[in-house]
Fold these 3 entries.
Entry 1:
Amino acid sequence: MYRYLDFETIGSCNRTCPTCLRNSYPDRDAVASWFGKNYLEEELIYDAVEQALAMGFRGGVCLSHYNEPMMDERLPRIAHAVRSYDKLNTVHLNTNGDFITEELAAQLDGALNFMIITLYMDEPIRSERAEWIRSLFKHTVLRIKVNTGHDTTHFSPSSDLNTLIEERRGNRCDQPNNRVIINHRRQYLLCCDDLIGNFDLGTFPEVGIEEYWNGKRREIANTLSENGGRSWHPHCEICPR
């Protein structure tokens, strides 16, 4: 069983970090919808959670992917609604923290079990903002990261990119077994390095959660779990993770 069920509730992000896959991806037409306020339908999120729970899923729900979730004005309502499914282990998200206000913090505190916050401003502003954010949350656990980079991923401008690709080319990969990811276009994504739906895994709800998990994805996961399995697909073959 997968550990996480991830939703990209909105495509937008306010930052244009060159090391982020959404900004380094060479096919700009393919990523165009991430640069506008395009939403995943709210009712589909709850439908997917209920389907996962019916399968026996008891893991965590993440309310972000390659986006800034706090640009979605529906976020507090969605977080509270998902948190109300008491069989879930956790509800969390990743954010750059730029949109946190006292009002938004009050709405999210306790609805999220934890937040991973990466602050992308320079010192001393970064430390001051981290301290201020911590003062706003009493129930949600905060994991504030103080670095300003991203993990090296596809098409990254990192000087280590080609070295990492060569080092990992023959490695096994178990990422497709960790989570179910649905982006704002309703596409199933194979892993955290799949931005645009490179593997033609279908869309939700046309393909249900159980059908997705036990269908084509399983065949791909089995292939990737073998030595040299990354060579089966061009996107996996150039993965630096």
Note: The first strand starts at residue 4 and ends at 7.
Entry 2:
Amino acid sequence: MTSLEGILSDIGELTAADQIAPFMARLTANYGLQTAAYLGTGTLDRQREPREPYLAVTYSPDWVERYRTQGYLKIDPVVRIGLKRLLPFDWSEFTETDKSVNQLFGEAAEFGLGPKGISFPIHGHAGDKALLSVSADLSELDWKGVRRTILQQFPIIAAHLHEAVLRTESATRPIPRLSPRELECLQWSSEGKTVWECSVILGLSQHTVRCYLESARHKLAASSNAHAVSIALRSGLLFEHP
């Protein structure tokens, strides 16, 4: 099984749009999942004609066509509710009595989607939103272990995958403005300094350094300090020492 660091490294090497779906197929195999789907809106669908959400899936082409022709995007609770969420959510919470929704999930199972699933919302800083959803066909015992792992790792994977999609689609996003202190904290973090070391170097309290880093993460829509440093470096906000 490829480690999280290996997965993130693979995402960083994605340079073309046609590499996204094959990567997702490798991702599902790595974690013992049945399917994976990435749905992007906002920045992504505004640059597409006709204006449709960006979609990269491991589903069968027949299910993708069926989903579109039946208009399931409008009634799918995973999408309809998921894009408004901030935190990961388990599909088990959807106990819909609506006949059309029951039909959707019934047909999805016939086309190979697993009965168990989790979705991970992503919210960018330029109105871009996305949803990474995975499904599995596992016993309750096996699902318990896999579920724990993906809840720990997939929020990070989802954020990095979203950046890769924006990169490969050449989606333009305004570079956020960071304060001098936010940039200083990120710059020293990029040099491997801890929060305590940053506080000593900058003459600030550790609490203040954490606040600056948290603010920078929020502005950059980053999932961690390391992710924020990566985004800032790619955006030209920081400089790399040789």
Note: The mean pLDDT is 87.
Entry 3:
Amino acid sequence: MARRVPALTIVAVVLAAACGDAGGEAGLSLPPADGGSTISQAIGEDMPSGWIRGFIVAERNEPVRICE
């Protein structure tokens, strides 16, 4: 059975944990109205940054995939 977790949730959790100073100017921004770049757009960029919209699919005994 596949388990789908929104990639934005994973990205938000990782970035929030990496921020360090929760009270400062630097930190996690709100997602853009369109949800950010698609997986295809992010792969096509040399160094993607910002919000990426998609899903992480993790099936038991299978590689983790990022899907649109």
Note: The chain has two helices and five strands.
